[in-house]
Amino acid sequence: MAVANKLDGPRAAPASGGAAEYLVVMLHGLGADGNDLFGLAPILAQAFPNAAFVAPNAPEPCDMAPMGHQWFSLADRDPEKILSGVRAAAPILDDFLDEELKNHGLTDDKLVLLGFSQGTMMALHVATRRPNNCAAVIGYSGALIAPGYLDDELKSKPRVLLIHGEDDDVVPPQALGAAEKALMGHGLTVYSQMIPGLAHGIDENGLRMGIGFLMETFALAGDEGES
Asked: What Rg do the C-alpha atoms of the chain give, in angstroms?
């Protein structure tokens, strides 16, 4: 399957009208595109007017739906096939992150990765392997792929927030606990929340938790102006 060399998708400059102080990159799930999560940007911009937002389309057309994109195929659920797909997409995403940061004159400590489902899987994989810590990872309804490889591949320890619906029938809710245990076992600071009654999605409670987590992250970094 052909894979695009460069990613692109909807983006928004800081609502303040000034230069970006943070970059929030939103990574969508299987069969969607950047617009799926980009609807959250105006809500987040109210809390973080100095942040720029971008939601790239994943590099492959979805092979399980007539439209949409995928970071990697899930047609074959063999763990090694999935890991291979994640590894193929990772450098494409890394290049995109590097270019976006350069365009805004920012470094990794000003980068936030916000993922949903397959996008969370990519965010956790890439963020823990970049040479420098990003500011934070917020992962909704996702999982940590092949956690055992962190023993040899871990390079960075960003702050992480994991949120999952208790009634998720797409990515098992148990994936939250497994990811939290593995990441904390490697020294990462991880916060998690299981949301009762929520299926495979992001609700108002989860969004509010994400905003609070970022406010705390930015405050710890000394960026009082974001909140």
From this structure: 16
